[in-house]
């Protein structure tokens, strides 16, 4: 009896163990955790639509539970096909976490806002047709090297088509039709060596089609645009070519558009006067009767054509004389309604005329118009400024005084170039960060210009950028109200925290760098015109409780002083700190200067050292000068690493991190990578680090000897 009891106990324990293992597997789920997180964020962004059967924003297992429209291979999501479900909302910001996704089809819905600027890196098919997307094509499309099908038709995409197609040699079908795209076709179209189908109809595209001449197209639709110029023999011979509603030149230099491309003979027409195009491309008019006879039509056409040429030449000459006279008589020019940056005098006394570009910020001649105003390009090439209404909340000064206890010292949380930042608690319990700007520090004293800057700053929307929610201009005051991020700054975490060895692990540092890089990518690539941060540093990287980074002071460059005193001050503080060499030399700051500052920030994460530290020996005071010669020496690199990491990092990961830094801090701006390339490199680095960590059962697998 005793033996029987023991046997039953053994069976019971065995059954219990099996059940426990089964339950554990159910809890852990089948799907890769990063895929689950990305899909849950997508579900929330799509307003948690009830049409998405099985989807949930908390827990869940897309592969194990067969969520609607989801196809998996083992634990990875490889296809999302949720078209025609009436979905609204947006696409969110975590799609790049779907590293194995091949097909993404959300067509025929009501999804709006812009196309996510970061897309799944291994997509082969991307279809967002028939939605309400706005903005432009994101730069990250350039990195989708396996893409074979791209359809963005029937949306509200605008602006010019970016030059982002050079590496998409696998692309077979490209449909950009029925949008508001403008400008010329990008030269990178010529690299689409396998493109068969190209639909561009119903846009506002201009220029010629010559960039398409070498492509193996079988289906080309460019109808209802503003294309002009001639049509080459190669394009004319495309089997399905639709061109109506353009401004093509039907001169005999090339065959005219398709209806006249081939000889047409009407047996019922005894005159036989249809145009026939010979193999040499020349027009051969066939007349019944004397072939050498000239009619009055050609003669009159020749005379009128000559007169038109003479008149146009005279007009062009007169315009050139007037333009030269205007140029000689004024020191300030304009194009459309966008003023040129005023001339400045170099140290040799010669005048230098600088034209503003979206990626250049001259700190000594900064105007509101050339930096922050939206620009819309018309069909005639003119550029118009569109003033934007302020959408941030307007506070009165008494409310902000009450929230900060009259800006008391105990509520002071920071101090920057423009003024001090206070913690403010409002009557509804909400805590905000309030920046009190010193009027003496402002370059934009005019309230209208200040409000225009506020309008653009409040429109910056990114998960790694602090949100501007309000402002105050009462009684001559200038205050900004931001979301409050309550875990301090990265600077505090690096240099004031005693627990950084436990908190700032190697993977966390890569994650922090990636978050900041994505914020910069949004400012440089998504915002139009590009927003140059100009003050990127660890003190402006705020952290929440989960150590997610938030870039602050975005858009404040428009408010910064433009005096020589300020430039000199910035040079003293940042020449060998965060500021790029070109800024110290010229006072001009570009997006590539931001990339340099980001490289310095990565050096801080790598070494745990300040960019400029006068307490160290002279050779080590400038972090960039000391560190960059050692970035490719493994032994020296190992000695440079922040001691707080205790050697817990992978050698390959460390080397790749150092390589990214090396490119970012190149002395010459042209050799620094654009920030989207930095983002992609960090994404790959973080993915590899995460995979390695999951494969390792112990932290020992992530030690220096890995």
Features:
disordered N terminus; 32 strands; Phosphorylase Kinase, domain 1; alpha/beta; 706 residues; six-stranded mixed sheet; Leucine-rich repeat, LRR (right-handed beta-alpha superhelix); 4 domains; disordered C terminus
Q: Your description of this structure?
A:
This protein is an alpha/beta fold. The chain has 4 domains: 1-29; 76-258, Leucine-rich repeat, LRR (right-handed beta-alpha superhelix) (Alpha-Beta Horseshoe); 388-484, Phosphorylase Kinase, domain 1, CATH 3.30.200.20; 488-706, Orthogonal Bundle (Transferase(Phosphotransferase), domain 1), CATH 1.10.510.10. Helix content is 30%, strand content 16%. It has a 9-stranded mixed beta sheet, with no helix packed on it. The protein has a 6-stranded mixed beta sheet with strand order 24-28-29-27-26-25, with helices on one face. The protein has a 5-stranded parallel beta sheet with strand order 6-8-10-12-14, with no helix packed on it. The longest helix has 34 residues, at 296-329. The chain is globular, with a radius of gyration of 31 Å. The relative contact order is 0.05.
């Amino acid at each position: 009896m005793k033996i029987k009891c023991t046997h039953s106990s053994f069976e019971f324990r065995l059954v219990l163990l099996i059940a426990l293992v089964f339950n554990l597997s159910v809890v852990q789920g089948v799907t890769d955790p990063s895929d689950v997180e990305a899909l849950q964020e997508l579900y929330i962004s799509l307003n948690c639509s009830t049409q998405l059967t099985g989807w949930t924003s908390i827990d869940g297992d897309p592969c194990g539970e067969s969520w609607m429209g989801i196809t998996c291979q083992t634990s990875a999501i490889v296809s999302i096909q949720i078209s025609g479900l009436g979905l609204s909302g947006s696409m969110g910001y975590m799609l790049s976490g779907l590293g194995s996704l091949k097909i993404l089809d959300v067509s025929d819905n009501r999804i709006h806002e812009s196309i996510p600027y970061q897309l799944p890196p291994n997509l082969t098919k991307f279809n967002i047709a028939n939605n309400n997307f706005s903005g432009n094509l994101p730069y990250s499309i350039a990195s989708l090297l396996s893409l074979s099908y791209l359809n963005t038709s029937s949306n509200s995409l605008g602006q010019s088509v970016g030059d982002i197609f050079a590496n998409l040699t696998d692309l077979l079908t490209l449909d950009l039709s029925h949008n508001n795209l403008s400008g010329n076709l990008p030269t990178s179209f010529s690299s689409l060596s396998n493109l068969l189908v190209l639909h561009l109809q119903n846009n506002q595209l201009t220029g010629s089609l010559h960039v398409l001449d070498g492509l193996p197209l079988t289906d080309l639709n460019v109808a209802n645009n503003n294309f002009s110029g001639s049509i080459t023999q190669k394009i004319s011979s495309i089997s399905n070519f639709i061109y109506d509603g353009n401004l093509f030149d039907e001169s005999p230099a090339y065959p005219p558009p398709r209806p006249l491309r081939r000889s047409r003979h009407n047996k019922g027409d005894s005159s036989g006067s249809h145009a026939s195009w010979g193999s040499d491309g020349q027009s051969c008019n066939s007349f019944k009767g004397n072939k050498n006879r000239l009619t009055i039509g050609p003669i009159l056409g020749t005379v009128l054509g000559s007169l038109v040429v003479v008149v146009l030449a005279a007009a062009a000459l007169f315009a050139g004389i007037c333009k030269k006279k205007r140029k000689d008589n004024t020191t300030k020019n304009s194009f459309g309604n966008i003023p040129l940056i005023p001339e400045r005098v170099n140290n040799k006394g010669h005048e230098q005329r600088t034209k503003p570009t979206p990626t250049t910020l001259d700190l000594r001649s900064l105007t509101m118009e050339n930096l922050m105003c939206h620009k819309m390009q018309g069909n005639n090439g003119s550029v118009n400024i569109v003033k934007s209404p302020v959408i941030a909340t307007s506070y009165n000064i008494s409310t902000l005084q009450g929230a900060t206890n009259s800006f008391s010292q105990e509520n002071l949380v920071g101090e920057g170039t423009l003024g001090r930042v206070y913690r403010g608690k409002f009557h509804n319990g909400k805590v905000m960060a309030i920046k009190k700007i010193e009027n003496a520090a402002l370059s934009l004293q005019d309230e209208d210009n200040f409000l225009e800057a506020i309008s653009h700053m409040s429109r910056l929307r990114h998960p790694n950028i602090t949100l501007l929610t309000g402002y105050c201009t009462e009684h001559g005051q200038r205050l900004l109200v931001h979301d409050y991020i309550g875990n301090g700054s990265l600077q505090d975490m690096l240099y004031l925290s005693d627990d950084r060895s436990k908190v700032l692990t190697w993977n966390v540092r890569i994650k922090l760098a990636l978050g900041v890089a994505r914020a910069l990518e949004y400012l440089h690539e998504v915002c139009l015109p590009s927003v140059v941060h100009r003050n990127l540093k660890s003190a402006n990287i705020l952290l929440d409780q989960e150590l997610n980074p938030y870039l602050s002071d975005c858009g404040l460059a428009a408010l910064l002083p433009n005096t020589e005193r300020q430039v000199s001050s910035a040079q003293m503080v940042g020449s060998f700190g965060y500021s790029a060499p070109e800024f110290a030399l010229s006072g001009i700051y570009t997006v590539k200067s931001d990339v340099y500052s980001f490289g310095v920030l990565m050096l801080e994460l790598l070494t745990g050292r300040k960019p400029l530290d006068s307490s160290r020996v002279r050779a080590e005071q400038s972090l960039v000068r000391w560190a960059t010669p050692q970035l490719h020496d493994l032994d020296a690199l190992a000695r440079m690493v922040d001691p707080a990491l205790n050697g817990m990092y992978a050698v390959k990961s460390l080397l790749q991190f150092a390589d990214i830094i090396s490119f970012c801090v190149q002395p010459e701006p042209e050799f620094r990578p654009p920030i989207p390339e930095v983002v992609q490199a960090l994404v790959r680095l973080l993915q590899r680090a995460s995979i390695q960590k999951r494969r390792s059962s112990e932290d020992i697998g992530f030690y220096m000897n890995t």
